[in-house]
Amino acid sequence: MIPHSPDAEIDYAVWSPTGAKIAYVYKHDVYVRDMAGGEIHRVTFDGGTDVFNGVPDWVFEEEVFADRAGLWWSPDSRHVAYLRINESEVPIYSIPYYISNTYEPLSYPIFKDLKYPKAGYPNPVIDLWIYEIGDIAFKVTYPEPLETREDEWSSFLERREGDETDGWGHKKLITNVLWMGDKNVMLSQTNRVSDHFRAVLVDVPAKSAQIVRDEKVEEGWFEIVLLPLP
């Protein structure tokens, strides 16, 4: 039994489609509770100040998903897909507040620290994990193409804008997660400047994934569209 107090603050919670279970996030860790028998499965164990499981950090909540949701049930309620975000390398930015919580002006501002990645500095590292009820979660990975952005644009290296323009791996953005039936998940991904898009299809029973769409633009970017993929 997980020792939650009755007044414990839950970060996020969502019912399974069948209504028999509920997935929730407590202190940045994911849990699943069977409502009939009361059994609780703890899915993650590393949540904390810098690691967010099942909920987005500030960057992905405000700039990508525009939502507090970071986990998604499969239609048959047998699997939960969830985000894991590590912002330990993101620098801290101190924000001055000149108005108090009671809306009174302050003679001296109050500073609040926020993990905020400016251009050229590390972004949070995001990955998708999938948990089958009663089993062990697995991280979604796929074979990356051998060519890299540096290879493709080698003649332009002298005018690179910084780390935010290159690569995938730990630098990718996940911009949409969608269950395609009970056994497949579709991911929308881009690089940091969003001029390279990939759609990744996950075969959940096989615990494998592959790129099914790969597009680049030289002028412009791919918009974040939180709708089912075509």
Description:
By secondary structure, the chain is mostly beta strands. The chain has one domain (12-216): 8 Propeller (Methanol Dehydrogenase, Chain A). It is 5% helix and 40% strand. The protein contains two helices and 15 strands. Strands 5, 6, 7, 10 and 11 form a five-stranded antiparallel β-sheet that branches. The chain has a four-stranded antiparallel β-sheet with strand order 1-2-3-4, with no helix packed on it. Strands 12-13-14-15 form a four-stranded antiparallel β-sheet, with no helix packed on it. Residues 153-165 have low confidence and may be disordered.
At a glance:
This protein is mostly beta strands.
Quaternary organisation of the protein chains: single chain
> From the alpha-carbon coordinates, what is the Rg to the nearest angstrom?
20 Å
Beta-strand content: 35-45%
Q: How much helicity do the residues have?
A: under 10%
What do the pLDDT scores average to? 86
Sketch the major β-sheet.
5 strands, antiparallel
CATH class: Mainly Beta
Could you name the CATH homologous superfamily?
Answer: Dipeptidylpeptidase IV, N-terminal domain
Structural topology:
Blueprint: E1 12-15, E2 21-26, E3 29-34, E4 40-42, E5 51-53, H1 58-65, E6 71-73, E7 79-86, E8 92-99, E9 105-115, E10 125-132, E11 138-139, H2 149-152, E12 173-179, E13 184-190, E14 196-203, E15 208-216
Antiparallel strand pairs: 1-2, 2-3, 3-4, 5-7, 6-7, 7-10, 8-9, 10-11, 12-13, 13-14, 14-15
